[in-house]
Specification:
With 370 residues, this protein is of the alpha+beta class. Helix content is 23%, strand content 26%. Helix 1 runs parallel beside helix 2, helix 1 packs across helix 6 and helix 3 packs antiparallel against helix 4. The relative contact order is 0.13.
């Protein structure tokens, strides 16, 4: 129970469905006195109190479990390391993967519980043979299946999402008000919970020592200098401070961040188009395809609120290297290593991979950078 309206209503619905429910709030902050600022951040003292009030109304036991050390190691430190490596991580994916459906579920199973129930907008569906599958929520506008794409088949077996069939968030808020929950109109959390002021660049600058490096075009020509590659991500336009305009007068965008050489590569917008993505860290959220090494049609989504794109995917073996490769039918734009590609079959979440490499749809010779 995060202290928000969704998890409060999910807990109440689980009780009414006949389950024995215990409310758990995860203390993830290393600073237990942290206060909430509007809709920024989560897991604060106020959130814990909101969760307890909802649990009291529902009439269920309520506990606070301290996972702050695990959260720091698996989410915060990972976030810093990924940016230092020139990648663009998604901490919400890591939190679901390492904390809510790993550390929390492991402890719950050890204590004799059968499942973790959350307020995510997603659905569990049984196939013809009774196997559990993870699917999109009924309301696509609120669908959160993307951030659950990191769940493994075993974790899906022990997950419950009571809000999956709910048509809208407005209906959940109305239900919360009817139940007397004080969080009925509480704003949704957004941004990165451990960077509540939203200044990711400034936060990283305090933790990753900046080092001046070169800004290059795609052919290796120096266009300027930067004060720290960690401040840049693929697709970024602002903050380049190159000065000299491109020959065609069009703006330039970050195409690559190369931490080994401490360089940032920029180019025209069309060079952001990607025709292939792949990663060797992948999982299946349920039964895998019968033969994943045979190309299969699917849809791929690379951001939580991005539109799914038709694609062909397959597992590729090259010697000892095994990776999940995805080729969209139409080029993707602004894809960065470190992002998560979630693959769907219709509404079903089939699996995911962390993107390690991309292949540009536009060769260097086909565009003009300067």
């Amino acid at each position: 129970m995060s202290g928000g309206v969704d998890s409060a209503v999910a807990a109440a619905r689980a009780v009414e469905a006949g389950h024995e429910v215990v409310g758990v709030h995860l203390a993830l902050s290393r600073m237990p006195g942290t206060l909430r600022t509007g809709s920024r951040g989560c897991c604060t003292v106020e959130d814990s109190m909101d969760a307890q009030r909802a649990a009291n109304i529902i009439g269920i036991p309520y506990y606070v479990w301290d996972f702050s050390e695990r959260f720091k190691l698996d989410v915060v430190d990972d976030f810093i390391a990924e940016y230092a490596a020139g990648r663009t991580p998604n901490p919400c994916m890591r939190c679901n993967e390492k904390i809510k459906f790993a550390a929390l579920l492991e402890k719950a199973i050890d204590l004799g519980f059968d499942a973790v129930c959350t307020g995510h907008y997603a659905s569990i569906v049984l196939d013809a043979d009774g196997n559990k599958e993870l699917h999109r929520a009924a309301a696509w506008a609120k669908d959160q299946s993307y951030v659950l794409g990191v769940l493994t088949a075993d974790q899906v077996q022990h997950s419950m999402f009571p809000l999956g069939a709910t048509p809208s968030k407005a209906e959940v808020r109305a239900e919360a008000a009817e139940r007397g929950f004080s969080v009925a109109n509480k704003p949704d959390s957004y941004d990165i919970c451990f960077i509540p002021d939203g200044d990711t660049r400034g936060w990283l600058a305090e933790r990753v020592a900046p080092a001046t490096g070169d800004i290059l075009d795609r052919e290796g020509k120096k266009l300027g200098e930067h004060e720290g590659a960690v401040a840049f991500t693929v697709g970024q336009r602002k903050g380049l401070s190159i000065g000299t305009p491109a020959a065609d007068g069009k703006p330039r965008f970050v195409l690559e961040v190369r931490p080994i050489t401490n360089t940032v590569v920029v180019g025209p917008k069309e060079a952001l188009a990607v025709k292939e993505i792949a990663g060797d860290s992948y999982t299946w959220a349920g039964l895998a395809p019968l033969n994943p090494e045979v190309p299969f049609e699917c849809h791929v989504q690379i951001r939580a609120h991005a539109d799914p794109v038709a694609a062909v995917a397959q597992v590729v073996r090259d010697g000892e290297r095994v990776e999940f490769m995805i080729r969209p039918h139409e080029p993707l734009t602004g894809v960065a290593p470190g992002q998560t590609a979630v693959v769907y079959m219709g509404t079903r979440v089939l699996g995911q991979c962390t993107i390690d490499r991309t292949v540009s749809a536009v060769p260097v010779s086909a565009v003009t950078d300067a």
